[in-house]
Write a structure and sequence with these properties.
223 residues; alpha+beta; two-stranded antiparallel ribbon; two-stranded antiparallel sheet; 8 helices; 14% strand
Length: 223
Amino acid sequence: MAKDKIKLVVKTPSKTLVNAITSASAKKLNSALAKASGPMSEEIKQTVRDALMVSPTVESIRGGRLRYELGFPEGTEDITIDSIIDAISQSVHVRFKGVKSHASKISTDMQIIIQGEGVKSLLGLPEASIITKKKTRLYWLGWLLISGDSIIVDQYRVETLSFDPDKSRSGDAVMRFGGVGFKISPEHSGTPEDNFITRALRTRRASQKITSIIIKHFKANLK
């Protein structure tokens, strides 16, 4: 019986071979990321919307204390906050800076961008303010997003017990002279870096959902 054996000798240096494999993998990953970014963005948009819908601040606007503290004309609070949530969720997009290969390592930089221009684009929306009967503009969204704990209306308070309903936009409260001044309560107040939007997206539920979406789309496009 012949004892001849077929022998394959790879003469390419091992380092060169590893680099070639890494480079090929990087190209495949770049292709996968390009395919995944669109569908991934759409799913993350819905996740952002879902997270904001259950925000304590949004719930308070719909049917809690913020609804009348901010002075929404009766019956307008739902459509107003829905418009703001739509604007926030539609601003979501996923950005990849490409996959890089170096030696035997592969790396990429992925960013999920929400409100890329910061809060100023939101504050410019018609729904971000209320015009009173006296033609005074109330920047309610700015109060929530950038005013922090500062006093907004000096020497006035929100009165909910005794008032003329005909003088109330919300039907539940009026601003009355007297007191230290009106400001947003700490659980709802915000700054550009820490507000009801950022808090909603930092929850464990939202973070886990976004992570699972990223992993799902990576796996689907690497097949």
